[in-house]
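Bench log, entry 3. Co-assembly request; chain sequences pasted below exactly as received.
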Amino acid sequence: MLNSEKEQQGRGKKQSQLREVLKRLMKNKTAAVGMVIFLIIALASVLAPVLAPYDYAQMNLDETFQTPSREHLLGTDEYGRDYLSRILYGGRFSLGLGLCAQLFSLFFGVILGCFAGYYGGKTDNLIMRICDVWQSIPGILFTIILCAALGTGWINTVIAMGLGGIPGNCRMIRAQLLSLREREFIEAEHAINCPSGKIMFRHLLPNAISPLIVSSTMGIGNTINGAAGLAYLGLGVQPPTPEWGALISAARAQIRYYPYLILYPGLMLAITILSLNMFGDGLRDAMDPKLKN
Amino acid sequence: MKDNQFLSVEDLVVEYTSNDQVIHAVNRVSFRLDKGQTLGLVGETGAGKTTIAKSIIGILPDPPAKVRGGRILLEGEDLLQLDDRHMQKIRGKKISMVFQDPMTALNPNMKVGHQIQEVVELHENVSRKEAEEHAKRMLEMVGIPRDRFYEYPHQFSGGMKQRVIIAMALACKPDLLLADEPTTALDVTIQAQVLELIKNLKVEQQTSMILITHDLGVVAGLCDYVGVVYAGEIIEYGTLEDIFDHPTHPYTIGLFGALPSMGKRVKRLSPIHGLPPDPSKLPEGCSFSPRCPRATEACKKAPVEMRNLGGTHECRCILADKPGDR
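Structure output for the full assembly:
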């Protein structure tokens, strides 16, 4: 009863798309929890300079391998650096890396996929054959080669991780567009003479993007994992930058004596990925106007 | 004379190519239409009615479709010769189209109002605000409250969706409206509403219309002229009275024979036997000859030309000059 009254009021009022999606997202408990957890982690990472009690690179060789205490809430590592500070800062690099690499591959994948799927024919063939070649190189090897060629560092890692994801995204968008462009409403758009760019990005893309959003939010986790692997190989983010994967690989040596050193960043990684997966799944539902209410 | 003609289609030929097979979808179709008048194209599924409409508005999928010949003159201008830039000014503005299935002809991810607004923005030189206002007025015109502007297509019923589509088609006051089976997907009561709406709007805006349908009842209610399409050809053409009161082509007669009629008492309706010919292998002579109860050897030899039966009434049948033995 109350709900329908509210709806009556809401009807006719202009509501931004974002607010509507958020409203629907909050109704899905799992997604809402996922979003809140992720926001907390993201916020903590962004506010790391304020929250962190110490400088993440400040060494103190008198206080190595300290167990958690009042001064160092999560203890210290082999160089006596405050572990809490390192994890907080680590979030910045890990999350940033995951997000940026996914956005990078999403952006270029969507553009290429749109052109391939919409124009078809020769354009499609050319783009798809490039993707074939691209994907014939094993993913991790491709990233390693790129990392070695581009050099280490945060930005280069983002590019290396992102490039590997482009053909996958491209294919997914293309497949969606191939079926969507035959639908009658696209024919109707042609009949009112809508320009190609507008048809592609305003009419086709919103109908095709949902599966990509899920795969991309879930892909953030994979990217963070992959970056950890790179860090272990000495590529990717370099010490003393405290990326989570790097923290894990650094703590491996002490796993028998100080297991919590590997536990904390591992837990953070797991929680982040879990919350992203919960959030991503709910987001897909929330973005589909048909599943409203 | 010809230059004053609002729309004239001359000898239009359209083919589809698939797997090295040529499908003759439209064969030498010609008709004329004056301003403010309505032409009904009737015929079976696959007869080429929709292809005719799509070639006029220029949205045939190419490949596989190709216009092989003919002219489509709109106010003396050949639409088939126009380059893209000029065609853009015509498509959507001067000519617009209503599609068959309202369930799929709207973008499910976009608010209906914005879809109408988009047409206006594309063709009229107005600000966003004005376009929105215009779109809301269009909604009201087709009998939908303006505050439903911000709703999605799935929140509308089929009939309302079709009305939104009609609003979209009429938003820029087109000179020519192509209605491709606008009521086929709707139930009978809604059909009547939508037809009434189209009729009124047409009169209000002085729009010419080509109505594609296989429902002779709809034709009787709306059209001034009727073209009967069979296997990509117009086999009989004339005013509503010509066709309904004096059907001449055996196919047209067959169509009426398959309809229940209030006046006549018949035990059984008589269907037309057989199926339309395979459009990739059309018969050499009259395309209806394999099914025609009156076909002679001469029918099967050479293609039949249009014959004038007086006035605007034309028929593609060699027996047609004997209107007496109907």
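The radius of gyration of chain B is 21 Å. The mean pLDDT of chain B is 83.
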